[in-house]
Amino acid sequence: MSLVLPGDVTDLTDATASDSALQRFLHGLPGVDQVGAEKRAATLATRSIKRGSKRWALDLAISMVDLTTLEGADTPGRIRSLCAKAVRPDPSDPQVPSAAAVCVYPDLVGTAVEAVGGSGVQVASVATAFPSGRSSLDIKLADTRDAVAAGADEIDMVIDRGAFLTGRYGQVLEEIVAVKEACGDAHLKVILETGELATYDNVRRASWLALAGGGDFVKTSTGKVSPASTLPVTLVMLEAVRDFAQLTGEIRGVKSAGGIRTAKDALRYLVLVNEVAGPEWLRPDRYRFGASSLLNDLLLQRTKQLTGVYADPDRVTID
To answer: Which of 135, 157, 257, 274 has its CB 3.0 to 4.6 Å from that of 128, i.e. a possible disulfide?
Structure first.
């Protein structure tokens, strides 16, 4: 599918030149067929991965996990434990890949950076008044700069859903652009909080807004709102990054976060990525899982593939 730009818009620069052009562009995007999207997601969820490819898929999913803890009771000790697990998910098997990243609050970034050392595991930090996004732009930018100064490789920002839902798209875009600039060399993931956006059309519009603002990833949710990530929502977001790449030549990623707890769920998402965006998105710099308990089940299922029996759940650490 090739995207047809609406009206007098000839490229994405035109689309973001003014509030009125942005409004025309976003509301001129093709509407999402709700029944069709849900049916396709459900159909793809029934596809199985051949036994010979399953271990590869489990290892790929492990390498895509942003191992996350975002609790008020988080301590430096908990962060160090989380980082050790991200670096060596299974200490008894060095063939298990590291997780993609650990995701923590800004004040714990320094602890995480020290703990992951030079392992290659990235340190991500939620910022911009996570999870509500309800603060001034100055505070959001200070939050971002503090996390980057402490060594964060990635910033997960939340959009102002109130502004988006009342049609103040220019304000949302300006905030994304400003946070992207404050990130410096750090990558930016833009959290849409899709559970609050109500419609798939809004998910599509918010995805394009995030991409136009410079987001390196679009992310489903904070994990604090239900529903969080779903297959149909992720399908819509994958279509957006695919179409954005066709339009601009720029590759961006998708992060599904919230409610993904089992290896079976993760494999369904990988099938979705392959079929909607394409196999070139099956890599950690283009697709991520935001999760806490998912990694444990991936490790248990991996052991099952190797030994033929399920391991005792007590053999993996509790996140």
So the answer is: 157
pLDDT per position as a tens digit, 214-271: 999 999 999 999 889 999 999 999 999 999 999 999 999 999 999 999 999 999 999 9
**CA 96 to the chain's CA centroid:** 22
Is 219 marked active-site?
yes
Burial profile 28-42: b = 16 or more Cβ within 10 angstroms, e = fewer: ebeebeeeebbebbe
Which listed residue (160, 255, 265, 297) is catalytic? Answer: 255
Instruction: Please list the alpha-helical segments (H only) found in 106-248.
Output: 109-116, 137-149, 161-165, 169-183, 200-212, 231-248
Taking alpha carbons only, the member of 159, 163, 227 closest to residue 188 is 159
Q: Has 54 been annotated as catalytic?
A: no
Identity of the amino acid at 116:
V
Q: Where are the domains of the chain?
A: 35-312
Q: Which CATH superfamily is domain 35-312 in?
A: Aldolase class I (3.20.20.70)
Q: Which residue has the tokens 């060594």?
A: 151
CA 114 and chain centroid, separation: 24
Check if the beta carbon of residue 127 is closer than 8 Å to that of residue 149. no
Strand partners, 305: none
Of 14, 45, 26, 24, which is closest to residue 275 (Cα–Cα)? 45
Catalytic site residue from 140, 160, 219, 243 = 219
Residue-wise burial string across 57-66, b where 16 or more C-beta atoms lie within 10 A, e elsewhere: bbbbbbbbbb
Catalytic residue among 153, 156, 243, 265: 156
Cα separation, 155 vs 132, in Å, equals 15
Q: What is the mean pLDDT of residues 194-210?
A: 97
* CB-based contacts of 270, cutoff 8 Å, min separation 6: 49, 57, 60, 61, 282, 287
